[in-house]
Amino acid sequence: MQRWRGLEATPGDLGRTVVTVGMYDGVHRGHQKLIGAAVSRARAMHRPCLLLTFDPHPAEVVRPGSHPAILTSMDRKAELVADLGVDAMCVLPFTPEFMRLSPESFTHTVLVEHLHAAEVVVGENFTYGHKASGTVETLRAEGRRFGFAAEGIALAEDASDEGEVTISSTYIRACVAAGDMVPASRALGRPHRVDGVVVRGHRRGREMGYPTANVETPPFTAIPADGVYAGHLVTRDGDGQNRFPAAISVGTNPTFQGSRRTVEAYVLDYDGDLYGEHVGVEFTQRLRPMAAFPDVDQLMAAMAKDVVDTRQVLGL
Predict the structure, then answer these.
(1) Which residues contact 141 (CB under 8 A, 6 or more apart)?
(2) In this predicted model, which residue has the larger pLDDT, 154 or 148?
(3) Structure confidence by residue, pLDDT tens digits, 43-59
(4) 193-314 belongs to which CATH class?
(5) What stretch of H or E contains 278?
(6) DSSP secondary structure string for all residues of 30-73
(7) Cβ distance 50 to 87 under 8 Å?
(8) Long-range contacts of 60-66 (CB under 8 A, 24+ apart)
(9) CATH top-level class for 2-157?
(10) If we measure between CA atoms, which residue out of 191, 166, 203, 239 comes closest to residue 72?
(11) What residues does 302 pair with on adjacent strands?
(12) pTM of the model
C-alpha cells in the first residue's frame, strides 16, 4: 500500500481514485463495512481505493485539550486498512488553517485537485468543512458539479445488554476505559491492542519469577482501566508477527506505592530479551481489578492465580 503525508506528497501518477474519508480510529466493524464498500466500488471501476485520514485528531484542533484516547496508532491503522484492500493512504495534517476551509474548498482542493476522486464513499453521518457544515447531501451536490459520485453508507450496529448500539470509536473508547474488553473486541472485530516499545522498569517482576515486558505507549493511547487482563503480546520479525499468550497488568503497582501507570505483560512460557522491541499488547478479558497486597508473598500468590486464569481464558 502506498502511504504519504500531506497533499503536496501525492504521487503524480495517481490517476482517478475511489476515496473514503474519516479518522478511522480503531478500524472497527463499522469502518470495515465502509472501507469494504469503497474497495468493492474501486475494484468494479478498476481504480485504486484511497483512504484519507487526519493527524492530529480534529478534536484537538477544534477544542484544544480535548484529544480523545486513540484506539490505533497511525502505523497500526495503515496495517489494518491495507489488509482490507486499500491501495493508498493519505494522512492530512489537521491544522487551524485546514479547519477553516469551507466545504466547497475542501471538496475542490483536496478531493478533486489533489486526490482526483471519481467517487467518494463515506458514512451517512459524515460532515466536513468549516464548523462541520458540509454533509453527505452537500457532497453529492458538489460531486455533480465537479464530476464525481458520492455515497453515504449506513452505520453498523451491534447487540449489547442495553439493546442495539451503533458501533463507533466513541463507544469502543468507553468500553476500553471501563475495562470491558469483550464488547470492545466484538465491536472492533478483534482484541483491542496498544502498541509501544519495551523499556526497562524496576525489574521487580523478574526478582519474583515473573519477568514482565514494560511497554511504553505513545501519548493519548487508549489504555484499559487498571487491572489484570488475559491477552497476548505481539512481536514482529522478518516473517511477520508472532503472538504469545500473556497475563497483562495495567496500573500503578499499588503494592509498591507506585504513582505512574504502566502496561506490563508477563509472557507465558517465553524466554528471551524484548528490551527495545516494538510490540503490541492485545487485551482479551479482564481478570480482576488492580489491588494493593499487604506483602510480596500475597502478591506472588495472586500473580500465580492470574497466570492460571489467563491460561483458562485463552484455552491453553
Answers:
(1) none
(2) 148
(3) 999 999 999 999 999 88
(4) mainly beta
(5) strand 278-288
(6) HHHHHHHHHHHHHHHHT--EEEEEEES-HHHHHSTT-PPPBSS-
(7) yes
(8) 61/94, 61/95, 61/96, 61/99, 62/99
(9) alpha beta
(10) 191
(11) none
(12) 0.91
